[in-house]
């Protein structure tokens, strides 16, 4: 893969947190290229820095040093306001516990990211219905989250992640709260978004079965990135 074709290009990325006057290193000198249209699974033991790396890629946290270029923009250099605009346009988020707003219906939850855009109400409705159709939940659009199963709530969350047609989808343990069968359905859907819509997906998971659905696995060990090839070479 040529470097120029990478959608995500991470160089010399380090992140540490400061706690009680102490510097706690969490990510150390990460280098990573993710081509457009890739589906990568980010694995590693608890506390190895997976969510931290995902949050940096999604522009919801700032690195201590290094570059994170996404589509040619170094997001580490953006101001908070520019970063918020960048996120709204380019990133869809899927979380372990869905993070739906309980007072909004499925339709309203999915429509929410579009309220930040200049689309008309009619256009917003068309995009929202299309996203709900994609996750096969059109018949539940007037339901509130507590009237939906866990799998259905995660499908609403996927529709919300998709509705603004982002380049990149980040998913943090998207099947972590679901049973095996429902989790497999969610993974089917993520694979469909990747294959049919060409969405680039970065997914954090503990589950080797979930990771096997990705086109590539990368492992973090104590804040250091170890690629699948390196893992094989060490074995
Ligand atoms: N805001 C924060 N302030 C201080 N330390 C933090 C903060 N966020 C994360 N950490 C620390 O960074 C390390 C990595 O956390 P992270 O959540 O990225 O790990 P993870 O690999 O996603 O773990 P898990 O699989 O358990 O979710 C942990 O030691 C954690 O305590």
TrEMBL record:
GO terms for molecular function: ATP binding. Residues 8-235 form the ABC transporter domain. SUPFAM superfamilies: P-loop containing nucleoside triphosphate hydrolases (SSF52540). It holds the Pfam family ABC_tran. The keyword Nucleotide-binding applies. Gene3D superfamilies: P-loop containing nucleotide triphosphate hydrolases. InterPro entries: AAA+_ATPase, ABC_transporter-like_ATP-bd, ABC_transporter-like_CS, ABC_transpr_LolD-like, MacB-like_ATP-bd, P-loop_NTPase. Signal peptide: none annotated. This is ABC transporter ATP-binding protein. It comes from the Bacteria. Keywords: ATP-binding, Cell membrane, Membrane, Nucleotide-binding, Transport.
């Amino acid at each position: 893969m040529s470097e120029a074709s990478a959608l995500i290009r991470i160089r010399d990325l380090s992140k540490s947190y400061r706690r009680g006057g102490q510097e706690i290193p969490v990510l150390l000198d990460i280098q990573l290229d993710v081509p457009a249209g890739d589906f990568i699974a980010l694995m590693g033991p608890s506390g190895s820095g997976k969510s931290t790396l995902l949050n940096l890629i999604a522009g919801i946290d700032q690195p201590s040093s290094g570059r994170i270029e996404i589509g040619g923009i170094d997001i580490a250099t953006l101001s908070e306001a520019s970063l918020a605009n960048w996120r709204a346009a380019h990133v869809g988020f899927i979380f372990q516990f869905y993070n739906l707003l309980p007072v909004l219906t499925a339709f309203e939850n999915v429509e929410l990211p579009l309220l930040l855009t200049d689309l008309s109400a009619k256009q917003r409705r068309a995009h929202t219905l299309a996203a709900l159709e994609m996750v096969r939940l059109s018949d539940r659009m007037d339901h509130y989250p507590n009237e939906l199963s866990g799998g259905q709530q995660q499908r609403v969350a996927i529709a919300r992640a998709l509705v603004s047609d982002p380049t990149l989808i980040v998913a943090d343990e998207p099947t972590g709260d679901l049973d095996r069968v429902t989790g497999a359905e969610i993974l089917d859907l993520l694979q469909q978004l990747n294959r049919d819509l060409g969405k680039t997906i970065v997914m954090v998971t503990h589950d080797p079965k979930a990771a096997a659905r990705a086109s590539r696995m990368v492992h973090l060990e104590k804040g250091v990135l170890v690629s699948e090839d390196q893992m094989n070479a060490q074995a």
